[in-house]
Structure formats: C-alpha cells, structure tokens
C-alpha cells in the first residue's frame, strides 16, 4: 500500500518538475568534519559536489550530490553523499536552507549508511541577463551516531556556479 501511494505521489508531482525550470551547478570549497575530538579537513577544487535545483515561487528544492574516492595504505573507500534540502529566500540574493544528509560508504569488503540533518545560509547572484548564477554558501550538518559511525559535525564553505535550463 505504501509503495502504491508513493508511486501515485511521484506520478502526480513529476509532470510539474519536468515542465519547470531546472538549475544545474557545481560547487567547490572547504569541508571540515569533527568527530570524537579529531578533525578531517578536505579542500576540493574545482568541483566537490554537483547541484540540481528546482526553483519555485516561494522555495527551491535542491540536492547536492558528492562522490569521493579515498585511497590510502592499499585500501580504497568510496563515499557517496546525497544532501536534499529546501531553500527559502530571505532577500533577492540571500537564502536559508534546511537539509537532510544521507551518506553511503563502501570499502574493505563492507558498506554502511549514515544519516543527518542541518542547515545552510547562502548568497546567490545572477550574472547579467543570462542563465548563469554564482553563489557562496556556508552550511553545518550533524551526522547521527549509529552502529557503524560515531556522530559527526560537518562544516561546509563552498563557492559555485550554475546554469538555469528550461522553464
């Protein structure tokens, strides 16, 4: 029954998203993870994440997708992060975003998931009359503790560029 309701909801919403304007972008920047007194700092340029946004009149649905492969000491770990969120305009160029985070890690013959939530504040400005925009964003996400991971706080500072398509 739940699957039928989910499929019905997706089919009802899909045509609106298909006909709507879509914004596609890339971000680069600094990510700092703090867990159990240790800190991991990652600086990614030019691209650390891909962004897909669906602007609406009162909000924007936006997802960040990040893929990282880390290799050290003859071991490789793959990390896939999906961070969907809702951004609300505070002014023409400033927005506030609530987000959830889902991270999938795979390596050493095992895999695990971690979930979290957070928020971001950003500045976005269209370049001229064209479809291209630039942005700066600061975010904090709290990843929750589970059997595989301890709780982690992630701080992100990114700069990005995007282009609006369709609509």
Describe this structure in words.
This protein is mainly beta and 167 residues long. It has a single domain, classed as Porin. It is built from one helix and eight strands, in the order H-E-E-E-E-E-E-E-E. Strands 1-2-3-4-5-6-7-8 form an eight-stranded antiparallel barrel. A hairpin with a 4-residue loop joins strand 4 and strand 5. The radius of gyration is 17 Å and the shape is elongated. The mean pLDDT is 84.
Task: Give the key terms.
167 residues; mainly beta; Porin; 8-stranded antiparallel beta barrel
What's the short story on this structure?
With 167 residues, this protein is mainly beta. The protein has one helix at residues 2-19; strands at residues 22-35, 38-55, 60-72, 75-89, 94-107, 110-126, 132-143, 152-165. The longest helix has 18 residues, at 2-19.
């Amino acid at each position: 029954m739940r699957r039928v309701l989910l499929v019905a909801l997706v089919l009802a919403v899909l045509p609106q998203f298909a006909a709507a304007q879509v914004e596609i972008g890339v971000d680069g920047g600094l990510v700092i993870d703090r867990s159990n007194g240790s800190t991991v700092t990652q600086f990614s340029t030019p691209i650390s994440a891909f962004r897909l946004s669906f602007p609406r009149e009162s909000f924007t649905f936006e997802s960040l997708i990040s893929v990282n492969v880390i290799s050290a000491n003859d071991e490789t770990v793959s990390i896939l992060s999906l961070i969907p969120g809702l951004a609300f305009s505070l002014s023409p160029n400033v927005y506030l975003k609530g987000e959830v985070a889902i991270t999938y890690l795979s390596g050493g013959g095992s895999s695990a998931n971690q979930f979290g939530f957070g928020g971001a504040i950003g500045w976005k400005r269209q370049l001229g009359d064209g479809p291209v925009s630039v942005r700066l964003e600061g975010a904090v996400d709290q990843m929750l503790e589970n059997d595989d991971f301890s709780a982690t706080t992630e701080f992100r500072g990114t700069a990005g560029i995007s282009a609006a398509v369709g609509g």
